[in-house]
Design goal:
The structure holds two protein chains of two kinds. By secondary structure, chain A is mostly helical. Chain A is built from twelve helices and no strands. The longest helix of chain A has 39 residues. Chain B is an alpha/beta fold. In chain B, helix 7 runs antiparallel to helix 9. Chain B is globular and about 55 Å long. Classes of the chains: A mainly alpha, B alpha/beta. Chains A and B meet through helix 9, helix 10 and helix 12 of A and loops of B.
Chain lengths: 259, 263
């Protein structure tokens, strides 16, 4: 085995060692007070204790569940709106104005109004998460549906497809790869929105725990929880990729094929 | 032989008023069952627009197209188009076999198994045995166009409208594909209308060449190709009848091009 092959095989441990090593060097240098920048060991210990008393598992399940439900809702709504936009130019223009105005508003800015309107709880999460997560699937959907080529559509018409048939049998399958790109992006946004909502208006979940521990200056726990949020992203992305492979695997294989 | 397809005074224009752009004007033609007819004309004369009108994918502004005695107002069963751009016409999320089966979606009186057997038979006839489970993007351009031809035939087609089907394949594949097209057209009893800008190909393939005029286009000359079928890439192309027909068509088109340059 050459050095390159060894490096390729061990890329995960090598990267982890680099990150952890750098962290530990910064810690040992004393540049940041230990209170705010704990050692790897104390973070791991704190994390282990939270795992042991079960609190973090419950919080994780709550946060991940909210992100997942929000993402599914946003994807379904986004695709539905994209289909409506494709059917009606009037709706398309209307939705475009709404999305142009709503899209730049960060999730945190929606939380206060949502608390007044919906109170604390599931409705608030659903509202905030879907409102900020719906746009990538929607915008990608609109672009992909309108980008389906004339030859493909003529092929469908030639074999007798109605307008509905064209939508289900030609346009949607052709648009799905691009829609999935939007859903992948949405997965990250969904997690961000959950954490922010939990921090500002939550009573449980990882976001709430981070907020609480931060105010108590429990820095090792805060870092542990942040690491868990990052893992959530990896997990959610993995789920989206599984679904993507199942639904539009042809496209991935087409993109990967050697020329 | 009775006419399978007729166009009677067909006109097509885009826009209106002073911006009106006529593409086709007063075009009349008649294709008999079993014929192989080539349509050639100067570049940009509106060949593809004409084919779209003949297939029912585009409504003519004037006149009417009839297929088997019925006025064409949408793509009728029994007629199929083979597009030049096979890579966009085949559905990339379906395998070659499923693409052919997609072409058979309106075929009546066959259960799924019979359809599958028929699709495999036609794919074998175009030389794609062993490639049925491949996706179109996994096979060469020439193979993709053969899938598209198989799909057209499988749709219980009697009339194939071929829109420059070989323009995008390389020269050697092209000669093979010409012979393959002639072969399957005869084997599956397809009447064919071939739109092409290649005069040699037009003459080689056809019983009759219809020469189209410059835009707004109509049929300006009919050249009968008096050569026996099957054709042969060597002997047919050297036969006096071939050279004569080729000369006549080329001279006509050259004349039109010079006319366009002067005006």
């Amino acid at each position: 085995m050459t050095a390159a092959v060894v490096a390729e095989r061990l890329r995960v441990p090598i990267c982890a060692a680099l990150v952890l090593g750098t962290w530990q060097i910064v810690f040992l240098s004393g540049a940041v007070p230990e209170k705010y920048f704990p050692s790897i060991l104390s973070i791991a210990t704190a994390f282990w204790q939270m795992l042991a008393d079960g609190s973090v598992l419950t919080a994780w399940a709550q946060t991940f569940g909210r992100a997942l439900i929000g993402l599914v809702g946003a994807a379904v709504l986004g695709i539905t709106l994209a289909i409506l936009s494709d059917l009606s130019p009037v709706l398309s223009r209307g939705f475009r104005y709404v999305s142009d105005v709503l899209q730049p508003i960060p999730p945190a800015a929606f939380v206060p109004m949502a608390v007044f309107m919906l109170g604390l709880g599931a409705k608030l999460y659903a509202f905030v998460i879907i409102l900020v997560t719906v746009w990538p699937p929607y915008l990608n959907g609109v672009a992909a549906l309108s980008g389906v080529g004339a030859v493909q559509l003529n092929t469908g018409r030639m074999f007798g497809l109605s307008n509905w048939g064209l939508l289900w049998r030609i346009k949607l399958p052709a648009a799905l790869p691009e829609i999935f790109t939007g859903i992948r992006y949405a997965a990250t946004i969904s997690l961000i929105a959950v954490i922010v909502s939990e921090m500002l208006a939550g009573r449980d979940g990882i976001g709430f725990m981070i907020f609480k521990k931060a105010f108590a200056l429990r820095t090792p726990e805060v870092f542990g929880l942040m690491f868990l949020v990052g893992l959530n992203g990896v997990l959610l992305n993995g789920l989206v990729n599984l679904l993507r492979r199942a639904v539009t695997g042809w496209h991935l294989r087409m993109m990967e094929r050697p020329e | 032989m009775p006419a399978i397809l007729t166009a009677d005074g067909v006109g097509k224009s885009y826009g209106s008023g002073s911006a009106r752009m006529p593409i086709i004007e007063g075009l009349t033609l008649s294709i008999a069952k079993g014929e192989f007819v080539s349509l050639v004309g100067p570049s940009g004369c509106g060949k593809t627009t004409l084919l779209m009108c003949l297939s029912g994918l585009l409504a003519p502004s004037d006149g009417a197209v009839s297929f088997k005695g019925q006025v064409v107002d949408q793509p009728p069963i029994g007629l199929s188009v083979v597009f030049q751009d096979y890579s966009r016409s085949l559905l990339p999320w379906k395998t070659n076999l499923d693409n052919v089966l997609f072409g058979m979606r309106r075929v009546q009186g066959m259960d799924a198994r019979a359809k599958r057997a028929r699709a495999e038979e036609i794919l074998a006839a175009v030389g794609l045995t062993g490639f049925t489970d491949h996706y179109p993007w996994q096979v060469s351009g020439g193979m993709q166009q053969r899938v598209a031809i198989a799909r057209g035939i499988a749709s219980q087609s009697e009339l194939l409208l071929l829109d420059e089907p070989l323009a995008a394949v390389d020269a050697q594949t092209r000669a093979d594909m010409q012979d393959l097209l002639l072969d399957v057209a005869q084997r599956f009893k397809q009447t064919c209308v071939l739109v092409t800008h290649d005069v040699e190909e037009a003459v080689y393939m056809a019983n009759r060449v219809l020469v189209l005029g410059p835009r707004p286009t109509r049929v300006v000359r009919e050249v009968v190709v008096d050569l026996p079928m099957p054709r042969d890439q060597l002997t047919t192309r050297e036969a006096p009848g071939f050279l004569h027909a080729r000369h006549e068509v080329l001279a006509l088109i050259r004349g039109m091009r010079q006319g366009q340059k002067l005006s």
